[in-house]
Structure formats: structure tokens, C-alpha cells
Amino acid sequence: MPGVDLTIEICGMSGDGTIAAGTLLNEALSGAGFSIIGFDSYPAEIRGFGRCVTRSRFGTSRMLALSDHTHVLISLDDQQAISRISMLGKNAKVLFDNKPAGTVQEGMSIAAHTAPDADLYGMPFTDLASEAAGTTRGKNLAALGCFTGLAGIDPRFFYTVIEKKFRAKGETVLNANLNSFNAGLTYAHTHFEDAPLVITAPAPEKKKVQRIMLSGNAAIARGALDAGLALYFGYPITPATPIMEYLAKTLPQKGGKVVQMEDEISSIGAVLGSFYAGKRAMTATSGPGLALMAEMISLGVMSETPAVIVDAQRGGPSTGLPTKTEQSDLHAAVFGGPGDSPRIVIAPTDVAECYQFTLKSFELAEKYQTPVIVLTDFFLDNRVENVAAADISGKKRVDGNIYPPKKEQGRYQRYLVTPSGISPRALPGSEGYIYPATGLEHTEAGLPDYSEPVHMQMNAKRHTKIRQALADLPPPKEFSQKGPLDLGVIAWGSSFGAALEAVLKARKKGLAVGALKVISLFPYHEEQIRQFMSRCRRVLIPELNFQGQLANLIGHLHHGDVVRFNRTTGTPLLPSEILLKIQELLQKDNT
Predict the structure, then answer these.
(1) For residue 510, with 0-12 CB atoms within 10 Å meaning exposed, 13-18 middle and 19 or more buried, which class applies?
(2) Measured between alpha carbons, how far apart are the two ends of the chain, in Å?
(3) Residue 567 has pLDDT above 90, yes or no
(4) Which of 7, 258, 272, 338 has its CA 20 to 30 A from that of 39?
(5) Are strands 536-543 and 563-566 parallel, antiparallel or unpaired?
(6) pLDDT digit string (tens) for 378-396?
(7) Is 92 helix (H, G, I), strand (E, B) or coil?
(8) How many other C-beta atoms are found inside a 10 Å radius of the C-beta of residue 82?
(9) pLDDT of the residue at 205
């Protein structure tokens, strides 16, 4: 059915299998041919007791962001799901567990809180699972079966993913989950003969495209593997830990090693040491860990040693909000560290780009002999998309190293000043190419020197090569009509999808607006950004931080003040929020 665009939420208490149910739902809908974007939220505590929510938006066109409203809410725990009522759209469907029978405390049933236009479907999830499988643990599967029956979706898509998930656990576990699902499916068919949702799968693509359900973290890990990662050093921290967990299972199979370090300082130290020795390495952390790494990152800048660091941003400052999303580490990533410490900072905007730019970061780090920071965030790391397999595979490792010519043997200068700022890099142990590498300012030969001319020369060298990197960094991508624009929206990271959707909706309303996606945050493509801004009467920069950190970085390129739209709610930006701001600004201009 053309034009499908629906959002389903599953909400329950920790232990209800909420996240598992959401994963199965996403996989099944992807198998049915829908585009998917899904996102989970859960408690910050390691042994979490609290609300778990999965939010899945699916449709017949590509999903760019989370939607504003929920069309179907599946409640596995009414007390928790009541908090999601405010997200329900008009005529939403609410599935809830109406058994086992008993007295319900006043106000504790979700049915008492929904709007009059909501359609309520009480179904005995717990009883169905207990009768079908002998355990109540399958109530999440019974709920999925009930939804499948109500929606009229071919259950074979669910059978496929259930078998894939539980087959390895044995026939008993597999059958228990299949039986729970079928019990819910049968109940829906029996008690609701006319499927009230009727979600028809899209027609098969003319050219079959293989798609893979992947999270941002998994895409990062795959990109590192395809880049030829040899060593991963890390310390567990939310939301970056899944990268280490993924690599712990896969990297040893490729001859590499994953080492859990005692802290983030030792992690970045080991990464620098590995690259110094000629082995590709990486680490992943979040804001608190990046703060600890600042001194060692600047060592990489001074010693011109490559490094790859993923910073999975979360709410801050300090320990902050470990399981909430934010984009507030941009200043730290670009400027963090003593002295002038230029490094490369890039920020992917979707799951496919998490793969592509992690892969690219290793080449950049080697070629420009500098730390590269890949900025993601909790929303991008944890969200899943069904991306085309061709977009996240088949890439070949590119050796970015620039080696010294043989004629330099015996008179090699590691920090030779060149027009590009890039010096030939010899690996330790190469006869005739020995050099010292420390955190001290140095001559071209690497010998400590604190004189004014040398420090000026070497500072210029380090900044020159970073500016040269623009040639290899992704330029801003514009989504707009030609000619003058009343308003341009510039966004980065996971917020870009919401910004683009808002702009597309604004254009359908006849508004002259456009969007610009910025991936390379430092160095940034000044001329392209300035050209876009010059065509815009107003510039709006939406960000998930309080200060407007991208606006601070590039705002001076506009002929007037940029408009900052800053949010620190811990949740992703929604297209409707940005669209409302666009309309407000243009309406104000016309009055």
C-alpha cells in the first residue's frame, strides 16, 4: 500500500522482553519490504529496573528520523506505558494485557488514560503465553502475534526472524516462542475477524536489493574490520560498549585482538603505540572518556601519530545522562587539549555513514598522520536501519601511509617541512630511518627545540596538513532548489535526518527553504558553507546541545546572525520541532 508511514512503540518494565520484541518486529517488517528506523531507550543502571521502550518507524519510502506520534502502542506493563500516552496520534491503536483477571488499582490501567479517539484492544498476553508455552516469559511474543493478526501482516515474516533468533537455543526454546506467537496470532484472528490496521507490504523491488538490519555501533565495528583493524583497546562506557562487544566476537577471527584496558587514558595510549608501530588500532568512548584522553590526543597531534577515536556522545556534563542522547562534545572534539592541537573530526548522519566514515577514518589518520575523531551519539549508535548491503560492505582497505624514499636512508627527517605539511613516515625499526618522537616541540629531525622560529614553523606545518585534508573529506551536501532561499537549515550528526524531513515538508507547503548536511566538522569546507549561507536570508542551525556548538564554529561565515535552535532533552530532535521553528521564523519575517 503506497504511502505507509507508521510508528509502533512497545513499552514494558525491564525483564519483559521489550527490547527483544522490538528487534524481532524490526527484522520482520524489514523482511516484508518496509524501510525501518528503530530506537530503544532503557534505564541507565547496569542492573536496570525501569521503563524500556522500543520505537519503530516503518514505511514505503526511506525513513529519515523518528516520527512525532505513535500509531500503535503495545503495552507489556501498563504502569510504564501510561507515560507514552502523550505520544499517541489521533485514532491510535493500543494493545494491552487484560489478563490475568483481578482487581486493578484505580488509575493503573492504561485504558483509563487514553484519549476517547484511541482504539483499545485488551488481549491476555500473559495467559496466552502461559497456556501455549508453560511460561509467562513469552508474553512479548504473544503480544507480537496479537499485533500481527490485527495488522493483517503475513506471519511468515515473523516465523523467519523468530527461528533465526532462537534456533541456536534448541528446539524447546524455539517452539516455546513460536507457540506463544501463534497463540497471540490465533487470538487476534478469532476475536477480531476484520483486521483493523491492514498494513499491506509494499510491492517487491524491481531490482532486488539485499538489506541488512544494523545499528550505528555495529556499522562502526564493521567499518573498522573492513579497514583492516588489527587491535582494539577500550574501556566499557555507554553508549560505546557495543562496539567493543561486537569486535570481541569478530576481530579475533581475522587475526586481531581486543584488549579491555584499565581506563580511557591507557586505551588511547595503546592506540597511539599501535599506529606508531604500523598497526591499525582504534578505541571508542563517550564524553567522560574523551575528556580523559585529551592530553594523549594532543600527543598524537605533536608527534604526528595516527589514531582513530569514536566518541559516542551522551548527555553531559560529567557522567551526565548515560542513556540519553546529545551532541555536546563538538567543542571538546575540535578544541580539546593543550595548545593548538588540530585534528580531524567527522560526524556521520546515518547508519550507512557510520560504516563508510569509520572505514575512511583509518586512511585519513595514516595519510595526515593525526588523530581522527568520529563523532556519533546515543541516538545514532543505538538506532537501527535496514541499510542496503552494498552500502556497508565490499570496501577495500586503502593504505594511507606516505613512506620515505630510499634515498633518504641515513639522513631521514621525520618532520620534514613540505608544501602539504605531510612528512614521509617511517616505521620504527627501519634501518636508516630512526627518529625520536616525543611530546616536546622539535626540529624537522625530531630533536627538542623550543625556539620561536621552530615553534612557528611546526605549528604552521601541523595546521597546513589538516587544511589539506579537506581534499579527502566529504564536502557539505545540499538539499535545496536553485536560487535564493528564505531560510537554510544546517545540521550535523543524527539530527540531520529530522532537519531534512522538516525542510522537505516545508517545501511541500511552498516555502523557499533548503538543507545543508555537514559531515566534516574540522576542518570544515568554508567556501561551500559560505556559498550556501550567502543564498539564505536566514540560517537556522538545530542542535542537541545548549550552546549551539556548530553555530559557534561556523556561524561567522553568514552575513548575519544565525538562528540557534538548541535542545537538551536527552531525546532526538523531531521533524515537527524543526518545521515549527521554520514556520515561526518565516511568519515573523512576513509580518
Answers:
(1) exposed
(2) 42
(3) yes
(4) 258
(5) parallel
(6) 999 999 999 999 898 877 7
(7) strand
(8) 18
(9) 67
17: Cβ–Cβ under 8 A, 6 or more apart, which residues?
76, 137, 139, 140, 141
Homologous superfamily of 213-392 in CATH? Thiamin diphosphate (ThDP)-binding fold, Pyr/PP domains (3.40.50.970)
What is residue 535's DSSP assignment?
A: T
Angstrom distance (rounded) from CA 543 to CA 564: 8
d(C-alpha 368, C-alpha 106), whole Å: 65
| Residue in 131, 109, 135, 128 with CA at minimum distance from that of residue 120 | 109
Q: What is the pLDDT of residue 105?
A: 67
Please name the residue that has the C-alpha cell 493478526. Answer: 149
DSSP E strand stretches across 17-145 = 35-41, 51-59, 70-75, 88-97, 119-123
CATH architecture of 5-191: 3-Layer(aba) Sandwich (3.40)
What nine digits make up the cell of 33? 519490504
Q: What is the reported pLDDT for 438?
A: 95
Long-range contacts of 395-398 (CB under 8 A, 24+ apart): 395/223, 395/226, 395/356, 395/359, 396/226, 397/226, 397/227, 397/228, 397/362, 398/363
Nearby residues of 138 by Cβ (< 8 Å), 6 or more positions away:
129, 132, 176, 177, 179, 180, 181
Q: 477-589 belongs to which CATH class?
A: alpha beta
Q: What percent of the chain has pLDDT over 90?
A: 87
Nearest CA to 483 among 450, 526, 512, 449?
512
Q: Among 222, 230, 280, which residue's Cα sits nearest to residue 256?
A: 230
pLDDT tens readout for residues 493-541: 999 999 999 999 999 999 999 999 999 999 999 999 999 999 999 999 9
Are the CB atoms for 349 and 492 separated by under 8 Å? yes
For residue 47, is pLDDT > 70? Answer: no
β-pair type (5-13, 51-59):
antiparallel
1 has a pLDDT exceeding 60:
no
Under DSSP, is residue 136 helix (H, G, I), strand (E, B) or coil?
Answer: helix
Percentage of residues in the chain having pLDDT higher than 70: 96
Fold agreement (213-392, 477-589)? yes
In a 10 Å sphere around its CB, with 0-12 CB exposed, 13-18 middle and 19+ buried, how is residue 145 labelled? buried
Other C-beta atoms lying within 10 Å of the C-beta of residue 161: 20
pLDDT digits (tens, 9 = 90+) for 220-275: 999 999 999 999 999 999 999 999 999 999 999 999 999 999 999 999 999 999 99
